User: Fold this.
Amino acid sequence: MSARAEEIGARVAAFVREVVVSYEHDPRRTAHGPSDELVTELREKARAAGVLTPHILPDGTHLTQRETAYVLRQSGLSPLGPLAVNTAAPDEGNMYLLGKVGTPEQKRRFLDPLVRGEARSAFFMTEPAEDGGAGSDPSMMQTTATLDGNHWVVDGRKAFITGADGAAIGIVMAKSNDGACMFLVDLPDPAIVIERVLDTIDNSMPGGHAVVRIDNLRVPADQILGHSGEGFKYAQIRLAPARLSHCMRWLGACVRANEIATDYACRRHAFGKPLIDHEGAGFMLADNLIDLKQAELMVDWCADVLDGGANGGAESSMAKVAVSEALMRVADRCVQVMGGTGVTGDTIVEQVFREIRAFRIYDGPTEVHKWSLAKKIKRDRKDAK
Assistant:
């Protein structure tokens, strides 16, 4: 690990442990995620501590993926940590995409406020199942974009749009005659109506996950991201690193959950000795260490692939499956070791368990990634003949 990543990561970890953790029972954490008031307060503290948006350097360049993995893992030590230091989804992925594809003017108008932590964003891609819209299969996209003079007109419905309620910047995916497109929009916009915010198993992201209707949204032509018909290509630029970023953050959360479970097992006595001395509990914590280390190594391996210039599609799928499944086991064992306390909100363990369960679906469920890998196996075998 580079010296700069170790230094930045150490400052982020100290800030999360010493400042952010004290907010974990703040009443401004709602059923649909932390309030914007709470996020703003935490970001002001992060700015004062010099750890806001730590993965992007003052000159606008990014840390390497391997360096980012270390820093984002430290930010994830609390479910509120990524929000506080501005490494959370979907903003982190949107910043990455805009940095890669946006024009200078688009970066000034849409990227800079995100980097400064002054605005939240939303990525409008998935659509309602009842409409037959895009989910894990983006080719099913129903939202349309039609060129009308110097504007694009966008119509459709979107679902599971994280942070749409309260976001100031949106990236909307739609299909034109050329194929998939991405559009940058200012929010709120009267043409984008939040039909409802869903009640979901997770609640770590401000604004929750919304079902949205888009009626006659007029987007200036210079706010298309890249070129018409290349939206899926840009999505891949965003999605492989974003999958890995999720792994980084939730690995940090599970490290913390395991710390809490370990402390509990060492203090709590039953049947004449500490829980840690009972093999049933001790072995679960030992298994946690194994899964956590394997997850860390998987993340670092995939980060190295991305840093080497590859698109990392297959590697990020493997990492996402392996890490999400390993972290689910870790979170489940933490709950089990802590017994009744593990299913309460007295610690973050219960929340981490819920969030990891959702993570196994978000950014592609395990089964879709395995299906994609199986197709690659078939292609590689055919090419080898």
In short: The chain has eleven helices and eleven strands. The first strand starts at residue 29 and ends at 30. The CA atoms of residues 104 and 208 lie 31 Å apart. The radius of gyration is 21 Å.
